[in-house]
Q: What sequence folds into this?
């Protein structure tokens, strides 16, 4: 509600929650939020759109080169997509698994990441 009428907030990628609990099956989402203002220019509500990332993540996996692996990490190096699905979203599931835990050089760069993708094999 602190946003101006022309602003949109984009959340970090996370697992969807309902009533404080992580949904099962897991649903990776990103949220876009913006205030709704009345004729007087004052905010009276908010619109939140949950964007389901299962499809985009599946397409990323499908497009891995033969014999290769695809990883997507957040700005902290936490796996969002990993060849072993048990390592995905560990930061929310009580079993953190991060890129820099496997690749020691990644830890030096994690703080400067803007989020995004990292590719390779062996993590």
A:
């Amino acid at each position: 509600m602190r946003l101006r009428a022309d602003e949109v907030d984009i959340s970090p990628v996370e697992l969807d929650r309902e009533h404080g609990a992580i949904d099962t099956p897991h649903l990776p989402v990103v949220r876009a939020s913006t205030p709704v203002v009345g004729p007087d220019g004052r905010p009276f509500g908010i619109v939140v759109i949950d964007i389901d990332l299962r499809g985009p993540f599946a397409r990323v996996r499908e497009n891995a080169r033969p014999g290769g692996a695809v990883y997507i990490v957040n700005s902290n190096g936490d796996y969002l997509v990993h060849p072993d699905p048990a390592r995905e979203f560990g930061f929310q599931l009580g079993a953190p698994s991060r890129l820099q835990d496997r690749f020691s050089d990644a830890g030096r760069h994690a703080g400067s990441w803007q989020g995004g993708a990292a590719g390779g094999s062996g993590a």
Remarks:
- The longest strand covers residues 28-37.
- Confidence is low (pLDDT under 50) at residues 113-123.
